[in-house]
């Protein structure tokens, strides 16, 4: 890699240019230059790379699949909204060299390496920004400009003292290690040092027993504490001598607090930790709406990139709106709109390649919506073509062994795809013989056709047979036969569902319909969701792809709460926060009182929750570290940060409190403020930490956030590693807090 490699940079089927790519000596920067001119075209940092995909796992590379084999192709995916970099290597060996090399750099095996990598990258980046004349050293004026860039408003005399202390060569400039010394002095964590000295007898180290005391008293680690203390010393103490003596220095203590073990998120809950042998209806399932869209709902771009991004984010319920296309080739797009179209074959191929990258958990619903335009019907030949390209992991026959319940579990469905869609006849009728069934209503409002579907769904008596015949004409039998366990049925009330529906069926409700049911029949809604799946979708008025709050839907146990994954905001923060646990498998087990068909729980009445009374969550917001500047802010502007803690859950638990703002300090602000909340139903609560730049004349600007389920909170002194608006990490920005939970 370090010698430079000639590869094709691909932007489209017709744009394929050869470029030399080279990893710089710092092992943190990659540049590429034109083969023809030799001029450097661009460069990027390894820290900007989120992941590397092998093969034809992008829309661009799929368009050239016939020209270049998958083993020579790979895609570099960046954090944020920066576009992908699609590359074709000269050979499979060269491609593997780059893929494996990049993965080694962006996915180090241990957190200490990650921490050291981030620290080294951060210092190097700031040094390069400060060194305006590129002479390899920084003078005091350059350092003063750098402090402004770093969100630091520091007294000039104090800054000069730090500069002179670090200038060991007394040259009036800082070079290499001198700049590292200056940076360390600048980032001295007084609040952490004070905590360290509180438990250290000599103020210089923590003995094994002193570390055990800290872990038990403050971090509430009560099991295997001595073994944990030894592990932390071995893992985070940078000094070999200290490790040999089983002691932890102040530097090692800080590394521990900044690590995954020192995070507010319980590290044990990052892995798969919940029971996966319950029926599907007992889980919240990460779900997307119109997954193929990456922009708005009317004229937006349809792309397989939407599926790839959703799957990488842990989504397990995808939508595939399939329509007749030219030459009998099915296409996927938002029907009756001006959104672009993508071949159905490409979508299915992508799902087959990427569905199990992050999770072996089933895709409980690859939402197939076969439909017809006014001029073409979804014919048998088109359906058969669709069937032929479905991945082998698609469930085509009954596999559940639970008898009459007909409700499989995630464990039984590992590496499987369930199709959700219309079906001719009940599942039981399909297994035992033909039967009659009223036509389904459509999932989304699609104009006159949707109205016609709703009208037909109300037909009874003698009209039933003709409606069924019409349904058979517009829905291919072959595709219908592939709908197992997730058959769409119209929702006609909870009493009707109890009398005539099956656990293998699913109803789709608009957000407005769901809210009315929550308001009028909250307990009935919870009971219904204890035995049957319910899907919620956004209002047809949300043409800008905005989102509704998923929390109120989760409060009544709705499993498939479909969101527009392409739209960043609080709603997607809540979704990411809930599903960041349990191995990011896209499944979260509902609380016991929401899995009981006879439950008395109603989210509007917290006292209906059986069990303990409310608990108290106390959060001391201590400090912040290296907070990012607000996007598009003026040069030299420094943020005035405040922290707001928001609680999402049942109505009685909804709350928010915030700290005061700290003027002109985004680098190391200190708040030392305590916020307190009462939670009546903590099992459903999500906690969102938000940092904003205070503005007294206009709306505050977003700086960063982190959201997690209450069940995943680790008490004690913890760091919260902030995320950007679109959910990507922004190292090393963090908050330092102290958490207490009492009954």
Tally of separate helices = 23
Give the CATH topology of the largest domain: TIM Barrel
Unreliable parts: 109-115, 370-382, 426-463, 471-475
**What is the number of beta strands?**
31
Largest sheet: 9 strands, mixed
* Broad shape: globular
Helix amount: 25-40%
- CATH A-level architecture of the largest domain: Alpha-Beta Barrel
Supply the CATH class of the largest domain: Alpha Beta
Q: State the assembly state of the protein chains.
A: single chain
User: Roughly what fraction of the amino acids lie in strands?
Assistant: 15-25%
Compute the separation of the termini in Å.
Answer: 57 Å
Structural descriptors:
743 residues, alpha+beta, PH-domain like, Recoverin, domain 1, nine-stranded mixed sheet, seven-stranded antiparallel sheet, 23 helices, 23% strand, globular, nucleus, endoplasmic reticulum, PLC-like_Pdiesterase_TIM-brl, cytoplasm, EC 3.1.4.11
Blueprint of the fold:
Layout: E1 5-10, E2 16-23, E3 29-34, E4 40-45, E5 49-54, H1 59-63, E6 73-78, E7 85-88, H2 92-106, H3 111-130, E8 138-139, H4 140-149, H5 156-166, E9 173-174, H6 176-186, H7 190-199, E10 205-206, H8 208-217, H9 225-236, H10 240-244, E11 248-249, H11 250-257, E12 283-288, H12 304-312, E13 317-320, E14 322-323, E15 331-332, E16 342-343, H13 344-354, E17 363-368, H14 380-389, E18 417-421, H15 427-432, H16 448-457, H17 463-474, H18 477-480, E19 486-488, H19 494-500, E20 505-510, H20 511-520, H21 522-528, E21 533-537, H22 551-554, E22 560-563, H23 570-579, E23 587-589, E24 615-625, E25 641-648, E26 655-658, E27 670-679, E28 686-693, E29 701-709, E30 716-723, E31 729-742
Helix pairs in contact: 5-6, 8-9, 9-11, 12-13
